Amino acid sequence: MTFDQILTFVTVYRLGSISKAAEKLYLPQPTVSHRIKQLERELGKPLLIRAHGIIRLSEEGSAFLPYALNALAALDQGREAVDHLKQGLTGKLSFGCVNSFASIILPPILDSFSKAYPNIALQVLCCTTQEQIKMIKNKHFQFGITRYTANDPAITFRLLHSHPVYAIVSEEHPYAGRASLKLQDVLKEQLILYEPESMFRKKIDLTFNDLNLHYNAQYETNNLQLIKHWIKSTLGIFLSFPLYMQAEIESGEMFAIPIEQNPFPLNQLFLMYREEELNSVDYLFLRHFQKAMEPYHPVDQDDHDST
Asked: Angle at Cα 228 formed by Cα 223 and Cα 229, nearest 5°?
């Protein structure tokens, strides 16, 4: 039983004619008749009686009619609710986010959200994981987007994206186009890295120390745009994951090369929140956000509660 069959049945009943119903629905008459026959076949009883050019309800049709009308009315109400939500929903959406994600990936997601829900005000605060946790607990906002988890039982962390570290190089670099690189190949080149105080840099340093390897950190910064400039200038290799270089990689300006026997921890992106604090606007954005992240190969896993 389909919506089209129910709509066709109700339209024929209201107009009392197959031809008029076909005209109303912009359908050929055989299509209208076929839909009615399919519906009657599924129900096992005739719904309409055709005699002397007049169409009237059978006993079974009279019994089915109120349910058909209710079904159509419920769908109309659903459409109205969606239209009202898109056009009239008001409120304020506030959340935290790490700088790198906010500057590269978040803008188009916010643009599409604002287009769908123009009456919702937006506030995005860029800060560290620990700062976001404090602000969630102080109810400045209900959720945040971060690259790291924390040992805090009050906060839930949901993994959104996970990817191994790649060697990112410019299109002019001698390694561009290589299918993969050995770690020894990477160490022959100058490295572009985040500043030593960053969490990601500490993970890189720890990995090299565990392997008793030394590297040449020629360029260091906490600014992603400057990192991109150095990569494009063919000044070295940037160890990271491709998410933040997606546009440049797709355009061919940069190459993301897998590292053989990759020793580095996965790069990850998490949603952090307190379930009981989320409101309807938060849930609305989170559904929109997760759908928008699908092209970036999000990871579908169970919630990771920090303990």
From this structure: 95
The number of beta carbons lying within 10 Å of the beta carbon of residue 36 is 21
Which residues lie across from 126 on neighbouring strands?
97
- CA distance linking residue 38 with residue 302, whole number of Å: 43
pLDDT (tens digit per residue) in 133-186: 999 998 888 899 998 888 888 888 888 778 889 999 999 999 999 999 999 999
**Cα 8 versus chain centre, distance:** 37
Report, as an integer, the average pLDDT of 212-230: 89
Bridge-based pairing of strands 217-221 and 156-163 is: unpaired
Q: Specify the long-range contacts of residues 63-70, CB closer than 8 Å, at least 24 apart.
A: 64/9, 65/10, 65/13, 68/6, 68/9, 68/10, 69/10
C-alpha to C-alpha distance for 208 and 235, rounded to whole angstroms = 21
Beta bridge partners of 272: 144, 157
DSSP tag of 152: -
HSE toward the beta carbon, residue 301, CA cutoff 13 A:
17
Is residue 55 classed as helix, strand or coil in its secondary structure?
strand
Q: Which secondary structure element, helix H or strand E, spans residue 191, and what is its range?
A: strand 191-194
Beta-carbon-side half-sphere exposure of residue 139 (alpha carbons within 13 Å):
4
- From the centroid of its chain, how far is CA 159? 13
Give the whole-angstrom CA distance, residue 194 versus residue 200. Answer: 7
